[in-house]
Amino acid sequence: MKVEVEEICLVPPEINKPGKALLSPLAHFAWEVQYRTRFLFFERPSVKEGACFDALIVRLKAGLRKALGAFYLVGGRLVVREDDLMEVDCNGDGIMFIRASSDTPLSSSSRYQISIFPSPGKNSFPFALQATRFSCGGLCISIKFNHQVMDGTSAWHFWKSWAEVCR
């Protein structure tokens, strides 16, 4: 399966709330825990796929900008301080958003191998998104998050809020 990156950009929050949030000292012990990646798959829409995908990307980014106003920590950067404690630097840069396409149809058995997120470092994004269009017109939204900033419940709360804003 081939996945081609069409765009990598940062989606900043609509309203920036600069500052820093210190994480629990226990977060440091879980630093080596892999980022969680979740996949949301959607069948081919009934309209022209090219125009639909472009419009969807615009809507996803606009909704993301609004949602980050309430979830501003998600758009910050994880930083390990000199005293080895971790914090989130809310610098207003926003979330990494990757737009990609695949030469494989959604029905392919290898569809879970589409995530092309870069490996996170110690000063990295706590959250990133990838929207991948399949050759059949289907769509996958891949969501990668750091477990030290979000647990499963808070991650789903963010995704649900983002989806509501996009609608």
From TrEMBL:
Domain of life of the organism in this record? Eukaryota
- Which Gene3D superfamilies does the UniProt record give? Chloramphenicol acetyltransferase-like domain (3.30.559.10)
Which family does the UniProt entry place this protein in?
Belongs to the plant acyltransferase family.
Name of the protein in its database record: BAHD family acyltransferase, clade V
